[in-house]
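Appendix B, record 7
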Amino acid sequence: MSFFPMPDYKFKEILQVTPQFLKEEGIGCLLLDLDNTISPYGTSGPTERVLKWVQNMKDGGITLFIVSNSRSSRPAIFANAMGIEYIDRAKKPLTDGVERAIMRTGATKEGTALAGDQIFTDVLASKRAGIRSILVEPIKLSNPFFVARYIIELPFRRERKRRDD
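Structure tokens (predicted):
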């Protein structure tokens, strides 16, 4: 278990993650953050592009599962539209929500990754839970708090970029 929040993989957006990439890495279960990973904050449902991506992942044999810190109805709305399960109030970077999701999918930790836009919640939760992490860039930075958090995360984001070059 690592507490160093360096992502294992980095993509510009979640839609760039493919079943082929995940299978090559031995990942069959992808846990997904919701806000600013799948959709910007405040939207009412997934876009057609996201729904096509979800179907492609399912067709490729990847199990998807939303793990969100949200206390609203958004995780349920998105999960229902996407035809997948979810956990809300996950309290990332704590590991309880991540571990419950892994248990509900029947996946192994070795075959699971968590994708999200935040270093100090998503990446740290995955590291603490002993699974791999996929960092994506936030979809939209409109809130000053999110911009400040993103700036604080920049050294970790840049280090991952340097390691991939």
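Remarks on this record: The chain has one domain: 9-164. The longest strand covers residues 63-67.
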